[in-house]
Amino acid sequence: MDDPLDTYGTRFPPADRPAGERLRRRAGDLAAGAAGAAILVILLVAGMWAIEVADYVLPGDFDVYGIRSWDVEGLGGILLAPFLHAGFGHLMANSLPLLVLGFLAALRGIGRFLLASLIIVVVSGLGVWFTSSPYVVTVGASGLVFGYFGFVVARGLFDRSALDIVIAVGVAVAYYSIIWGVLPGEAGISWQGHLFGLVGGVLAAWAVRRRRRTLPAY
Question: How far is the C-alpha of 187 from the C-alpha of 201, rounded, in Å?
Answer without folding.
Answer: 24
